[in-house]
Amino acid sequence: MWRRSMNEKVRYILTKEHGRQLNTVELIASENFASEAVMELCGSIFTNKYAEGYPGKRYYNGCENMDLIEQLAIDTVCELYGCNYANVQPHSGVNANTAVYQALMKPGDTLMGMDLASGGHLSHGAPPTLSGKVYNAVTYGVDEDGLLNYEQIRSLAKVSRPKVIVAGASAYPRQIDWSAFKDIADGIGAYLVVDMAHYSGLIAGGAYDSPLPYADVVTSTTHKTLRGPRGGMILWNNPDYTKKINSAIFPGTQGGPLMNIIAAKAQCYTEASTPEFQIYAHQIVDNAEAMCEVFKKRGFKIQTDGTDSHIILMDLSESKYSGREAADLLEVNGITVNKNGIPNDPRNFVETSGIRIGTAAETTRGLKEEDFEKIAYKICNLLK
């Protein structure tokens, strides 16, 4: 391997970020701290190899070891989630969703997903995105308590007749009833696609119900609560979907896979298969519940009045701070969260009336309920 010293400007920025991560309380719900083994593989010699295609069917020679590592990732993730098939090549969760839509729909077909303002994700049909432009997107929301109302969703599905229903969210703290979504989808002959990106680590650790018994296709990121590299994946059980999904990834929406990231995915799936990870996943939820109790005790409004996951959505609609102002204030004081809209938000999407708090990253650092209670009290004192 040829050697060259790191550019000093790059090293300076890297060192600054290292210090920031070391000295910040990380409460952004979509972030986590990957293991040294995962990060080592992200920066490994696997990055040097082009491997268009799939194991045993590559367009380049010299892919024997690429086949081995990708097949290991596929086998490990299928065992982890109890499914029959997996594609581990998506570069992100959005890439995974885009490919699944392409596999199951035609342009102009109706896609039904959770409204962005209610906690959904951009890739579930939001107007500025590809999914909102290529497909006829209709959205469902939440009720006055911030909860999914499955009968309202059923009524909307009967009227709009979507080809695909997407379940899953970016800022929904509670357990989603996957079986209710399956019943709704089956009732109109729609595909049920579950985006479990935020919950995938909790599901792997048995701390949140799995959608695999109910969904036609499941997509996810591999970071967030799963604590792997930045990337995506697609899981399914029906062999009839295999060619469609694999073709939608390559050559449909991507070129060569990132083999260094796929190697890191194999590592993270292995880590998530351990008893220690199960303890970790349950601790994430216990820590979130402990924070919620402090917030409520101190008079702060929490959307859905609690959480079943790593996510806490604090409602600041009656506060002197907007979500942006609150997030900025916390950052100055060594705590990172993100501003977030709330259902029926009176402020615009730049300011927002909420902050989203997550417990996965600091749980990785070994913090327990009492530690998160102290952090919650500090947040309350800063935002009072």
| Count of individual domains | 2
Q: Walk across the major sheet and give the strand order.
A: 4-10-9-8-7-5-6
CATH superfamily of the largest domain: Type I PLP-dependent aspartate aminotransferase-like (Major domain)
Largest sheet: 7 strands, mixed
Shape, principal axes of CA atoms:
globular
Rg measurement, Å:
21 Å
CATH fold-level assignment of the largest domain? Aspartate Aminotransferase, domain 2
Number of helices: 14
What class do helices, strands and sheet pairing give?
alpha/beta
Task: Set down the secondary structure blueprint.
Layout: H1 8-22, E1 25-26, H2 36-42, E2 53-54, E3 57-58, H3 64-81, E4 85-87, H4 93-104, E5 110-114, H5 130-134, E6 136-140, H6 150-160, E7 164-167, H7 178-188, E8 191-195, H8 200-204, E9 217-221, E10 232-236, H9 242-253, H10 259-272, H11 275-297, E11 301-302, E12 311-315, H12 323-332, E13 335-336, E14 338-340, E15 354-358, H13 360-364, H14 369-383
Helix pairs in contact: 2-10, 3-10, 4-9, 6-7, 11-14
Structure, briefly:
This protein has 384 residues and is of the alpha/beta class. The protein has helices spanning 8-22, 36-42, 64-81, 93-104, 130-134, 150-160, 178-188, 200-204, 242-253, 259-272, 275-297, 323-332, 360-364, 369-383; strands spanning 25-26, 53-54, 57-58, 85-87, 110-114, 136-140, 164-167, 191-195, 217-221, 232-236, 301-302, 311-315, 335-336, 338-340, 354-358.
